[in-house]
Every structure is written in structure tokens, then in C-alpha cells.
Amino acid sequence: MIEFEDVTKVYPDGTTAIEEISFTVEEGTTTVLVGPSGCGKTTSMKLVNRLEEPTEGTVYVDGTDNQELDKIDLRRSIGYVIQEIGLFDHLTVGENIATVPELVGWDQSRIDDRVDELLELMDLSPEYRDQYPRELSGGQRQRIGVARALAADPDILLMDEPFGALDPITRDNLQDEFLQIQERINTTILFVTHSIDEALKMGDRIAIFDVGEIVQYDTPAEILSNP
Ligand code: ADP
Ligand code: ADP
């Protein structure tokens, strides 16, 4: 569960990115933050795993003020997928996926099993394991990015324009696949996009942002019937 309580973020240069934002992402559901560029979506996301710190207000992760949680633990326990995910080019697909399980000390056989399981989940054949990111298409790389974020079975997944750099057909396929995966993993997801279509498709709840604030927070059905 993720809860924002009156959260304000002012950057050191004086830019107010978000102002007194409150919303809750219930366990096992997806909330999409949608709105134009520069309205504070990415900042909100980074406040969850403490890539940024709030100026005022509180971000709760599973009921605990995340300021009380260890930063490194937070980053490792929360999956994070970004646009054109920074896969490590010098590591194979398998090694990329294994990054966090290795950091948290899983033994090798458990890691091997998990990599196989995730390749299957992401609909990639086992041969991809030993390939390098540069040998893959954009859609395949993004699948690996998702697999890497899911590797250590996080309770929470942050997805910042995860399919934004893909062509429309690949994007549509990955959205459909991810919706199916989501049903199997029961992860709490915060998803950022500037596309209202993607928000309506992916979200259980949608937070519509306008410069620094949430102007509507509803289910897709409520938003469609009450725009
Ligand atoms: P979005 O994700 O909706 O595009 P962001 O959260 O990235 O919005 O940005 C919100 C506002 O904060 C913008 O005005 C942006 O320029 C500003 N901003 C983002 N990061 C920084 C930073 N590190 N320093 C100063 N201003 C920033
Ligand atoms: P640092 O060395 O900056 O403290 P870590 O040791 O926590 O970072 O992580 C090493 C790399 O693994 C990071 O560059 C990051 O991209 C990746 N990583 C860490 N945690 C996660 C996560 N939960 N999901 C996806 N990638 C992660």
C-alpha cells in the first residue's frame, strides 16, 4: 500500500513540483498518474522509493512513513521501470534480471530458477538469457526491464512511462501482456503516463494531474462517465 498525505515537493531551485498531494494506492491495485509533461508525475513516483525527499507531508509505504525506512532497502524492495530502461549493456539478459536478487543475497540456484520463470512470464524464450541488450528489439528490452524490476518479487512496482518509447503496436501488445501478468502477481503499482488512453487501459484508479496537483482521482469508469 502507498499513501501520500499532503505531500509538497519544492526543488532546491525553488520549483514547486507538487503541492499538498494526497492519494492512496490500495494493495494489489494499479493507480495511474496521468497529465501533461512537467506537472509532477515523476517527482511523485520518486518520492515513493526516496530518489527524492518531500519538503512537507508524508509518504507511507505499507503503513510506515518511508522516512523511517532504510533508503537502500527501499530501493531494492521496490521494483522500478523507466522509459528506455537503463539495462546494463555489459551484462547479459540473465545477469540484468539477476541484479537485485544478487544484491539481496539469493543463492545461485534460486536466482537461476527465478530468471527462467521471469523469461517465461515475459513471453521470452530461454535462449534470450545469454544475449546482450543491444541484440534485442526495443520491445524485448522493455520486457527485460519489467522482468528485472519484478525479479525479487517486490510488493510495490513503480513504472514511469514504461512503454513510452515503443512503436504503437508493440506498446499495445506489451500493455495487454502486462495486464495479464498483473493478475498473477498481486503487486501494488504506481504507473506514470501522459496518455489518457493508456491510463484508462492500465489503471484501477486514475489520478489526473494538472500543474502540481491532482484534479480528479477516480476509477476509469467514473472518469469516462464524468469527464
Ligand atoms: P512530469 O513527470 O509530470 O513530467 P516532473 O515531476 O518531472 O513532471 O517535474 C515537475 C516540475 O518539477 C517541472 O517543472 C520540472 O521542471 C521540475 N523539476 C523536476 N526535477 C527537477 C529538479 N531536479 N530540479 C528542479 N526542478 C525539477
Ligand atoms: P547503488 O549502487 O546506487 O546504491 P544499488 O546497489 O541499490 O544502487 O543497485 C544497483 C543497481 O541495481 C542500480 O543502478 C539500479 O539501477 C538497480 N536496481 C536497484 N534496485 C532496483 C530495483 N528495485 N528495481 C530495478 N533495478 C534496481
Automatic annotation (TrEMBL):
<feature type="domain" description="ABC transporter">
    <location>
        <begin position="2"/>
        <end position="227"/>
    </location>
</feature>
<keyword id="KW-0813">Transport</keyword>
<dbReference type="GO" id="GO:1901238">
    <property type="term" value="F:ABC-type tungstate transporter activity"/>
</dbReference>
<comment type="function">
    <text>Part of the ABC transporter complex WtpABC involved in molybdate/tungstate import. Responsible for energy coupling to the transport system.</text>
</comment>
<keyword id="KW-0677">Repeat</keyword>
<dbReference type="GO" id="GO:0005886">
    <property type="term" value="C:plasma membrane"/>
</dbReference>
<keyword id="KW-0500">Molybdenum</keyword>
<comment type="similarity">
    <text>Belongs to the ABC transporter superfamily. Sulfate/tungstate importer (TC 3.A.1.6) family.</text>
</comment>
<comment type="subunit">
    <text>The complex is composed of two ATP-binding proteins (WtpC), two transmembrane proteins (WtpB) and a solute-binding protein (WtpA).</text>
</comment>
<dbReference type="GO" id="GO:0005524">
    <property type="term" value="F:ATP binding"/>
</dbReference>
<keyword id="KW-0547">Nucleotide-binding</keyword>
<protein>
    <recommendedName>
        <fullName>Molybdate/tungstate import ATP-binding protein WtpC</fullName>
        <ecNumber>7.3.2.6</ecNumber>
    </recommendedName>
</protein>
<keyword id="KW-0067">ATP-binding</keyword>
